[in-house]
């Protein structure tokens, strides 16, 4: 086992970052830079390799808790927090690209806004976007987590927030961890149920967007609303 200082200078992650740019580095090397140091028994590149081997993907690491990461030998709470903080900054980078004065008036805009929030989640996350009369966002609220069904997604909870926020309309968004955004029978039932209750409350359901991996499904675009 060797330490990073024993590596040829042009093979060290930080030096490669400076010379070739961040795009040239592997996931292992980028993770090593975040971790900064290894332990007496494991250098930082080997620790990075162990993390990627254990959790298989960046997406899986993002879904980890501090406790999950510290199950790896030599990786304490401080290093776990460093890793999860870096991933959170990455998500927030995409969120900053959305101007809250922009109108959520197309599936593409809604997808671009919600993708960093839900695409990497290991469980289904159900959000409601509450809009004003100009289709501008009032607030995005995560209401349900886990396998969704019409028994779990209750209209009472959805429209309680709509009334409180004086929302004129709403859009529902959830993710499919499988990566396939096509709706299930449960998704269709939920959409019909919320749309029906929206008519009764005079609060229009504008769309239901399902986020997959690199793609989305819009009920409105597919003529299902």
Descriptive key words:
alpha+beta; single chain; 43% helix; five-stranded mixed beta sheet; Cytidine Deaminase, domain 2; DNA polymerase, domain 1
Descriptive report:
With 225 residues, the chain is an alpha+beta fold. It has 2 domains: 92 residues, DNA polymerase, domain 1, CATH 1.10.150; 120 residues, 3-Layer(aba) Sandwich (Cytidine Deaminase, domain 2), CATH 3.40.140. It is built from 9 helices and 5 strands; from the N terminus they run αααααααββαβαββ. A 5-stranded mixed β-sheet has the order 2-1-3-4-5, sandwiched between helices. The radius of gyration is 22 Å and the shape is elongated. The mean pLDDT is 89.
List the helices and strands and how they pair.
Blueprint: H1 13-20, H2 27-35, H3 44-55, H4 58-62, H5 66-69, H6 77-96, H7 107-118, E1 125-131, E2 137-145, H8 155-164, E3 169-175, H9 185-201, E4 204-211, E5 216-218
Parallel strand pairs: 3-4
Antiparallel strand pairs: 1-2, 1-3, 4-5
Helix pairs in contact: 2-3, 6-7
